[in-house]
TrEMBL record:
Residues 195-215 are annotated as: Disordered. The lineage of its organism: Bacteria, Pseudomonadati, Pseudomonadota, Alphaproteobacteria, Rhodobacterales. Signal peptide: none annotated. This is Amine oxidase domain-containing protein. InterPro entries: Amino_oxidase, FAD/NAD-bd_sf.
Length: 311
């Protein structure tokens, strides 16, 4: 039986696993995806890089800023001069470089979709298609609405996080020929709340077309959440072209991505939740707030609490 299993290789899961590994433990990190990092993600298409989740990282704490500075020194991240007053840090050559660098040397098992987490003698049993494992301690860093599907809707922890709310976000990725009129634009009241020229970020491929990522407002995203990706493109491309003052014939690539649980609108307001015996933990950005740093802080706090039990 493993001592610690962590479900979800986003920033919270990586932070927890990294801290435990630094203390000499060997946590097992499982994730359903082909890549790691959760919404700190990059998609490659049309010879360009699209950061279709988190667009950048900002640091409020000195500790997290030092972590990001270390990634900059290693070449996995860079400062992005987008005109913002606050420092914005991006992965190089894409946002996915950040979680990849932070998860180096960790035991990460990808393509593993856990379907159930059940208590057994001495710990917990993780079950997935064609396999499973047991662990004395389990950390769930999945979105709050997905917890009930793993541990059961009647579990006390599900009731504890019942007030947490997350909103969806639809993302458009488009390659548009011609120079970029701006690096970033935010309009909280518009259908496209954020428009980013990913090609303006350091270390991105040089091409005739500019890589644009547009993220819809919570209202637009909720209204169109169940549309097909093709229909999302049809709805969002004209909005982007209007914002850029560009003609339709300049679009050489367009695709959409649905983030069903993206924006934290009501946080847990605690770094994590756990069972009284400290064998099952819940964490993620939804515990603290809608920031990459919040996810990291949640995972780190879980690790520190666990270390008091493991030593």
């Amino acid at each position: 039986m493993s001592r610690v299993a962590i479900i979800g290789a986003g920033m919270a899961g990586i932070a927890c696993a990294r801290r435990l590994a630094e203390a000499g433990h060997a946590p097992v990190l499982v994730d359903k995806g082909r890549g790691i990092g959760g919404r700190v993600a990059t998609r490659r298409a049309a010879g360009l890089h699209f950061d279709h989740g988190a667009q950048y990282v900002s640091a409020k704490s000195a500790e997290f800023e030092a972590l990001m500075d270390g990634l900059i020194d290693s070449g996995a991240a860079a400062d992005w001069q987008d005109g913002a007053e606050r420092r914005h840090i991006v992965g190089a050559p894409g946002m996915s470089a950040i979680p990849k660098a932070l998860a180096a040397d960790l035991d990460v098992r990808q393509g593993v979709q856990v379907s159930q987490v059940a208590q057994v003698d001495g710990g917990w049993r993780l079950t997935w298609d064609g396999g499973g494992m047991e662990a004395a301690h389990v950390v769930l860093t999945v979105p709050a609405p997905q917890v009930a599907g793993l541990i059961g809707a009647d579990h006390d922890l599900v009731r504890q996080i019942g007030h947490v709310r997350l909103a969806p976000c639809l993302t458009l990725m488009a390659a548009i020929t011609g120079p970029a009129p701006f690096a970033s634009r935010r309009d909280p009241d518009g259908a496209l709340a954020s428009i980013i020229a990913d090609s303006s970020k350091p270390g991105r491929p040089e091409a005739e077309a500019t890589a644009w990522t547009a993220q819809a407002s919570p209202e637009f995203s909720t209204q169109c959440l169940e549309e097909t990706p093709e229909r999302m493109v049809e709805l969002m491309v004209p909005l982007l072209l209007d914002a850029l003052g560009a003609a339709p014939d300049r679009v050489s690539h367009a695709a959409a991505h649905r983030w069903r649980y993206a924006r934290v609108t009501q946080a847990l307001e605690a770094p994590f939740a756990k069972t009284p015996d400290g064998t099952l933990y819940l964490g993620g950005d939804w515990c603290i707030g809608a920031r990459v740093e919040a996810a990291w802080q949640s995972g780190s706090a879980i690790a520190e609490d666990l270390l008091e039990r493991l030593t």
